[in-house]
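Hi R.,

Here's the chain you asked about this morning:
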Amino acid sequence: MSEKISPDLIREHGAQLRRITLEDKRAAELAEEVARLNGAVMDAADTRLGFNDDPNRYAAFLAAGARPARGSK
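And the predicted structure, written out as C-alpha cells:
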C-alpha cells in the first residue's frame, strides 16, 4: 500500500462506522497502529502465508510482525 494511513482517515472511519469522535492525538496514535497492522497483513498475504496454511500461523505472524512502537500503549 503506497498511501499513508492518516489521522483524518481514522477520524472519518470512526465517525462513519462507529459514530465516535476522536481527538487529534488519539487519531494519530491509531493511524500508526493501523498502518503497522495493515503492513503486517499485506506482507503476510503477499509473501509468507498461503491459503492452505494453518490459521494459527496467521495470528502468530501478526503477533510477531505488528508489534506496537516503543512508548505506545
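Residues 69-73 have pLDDT under 50 and may be disordered.

Let me know if you need anything else.
M.
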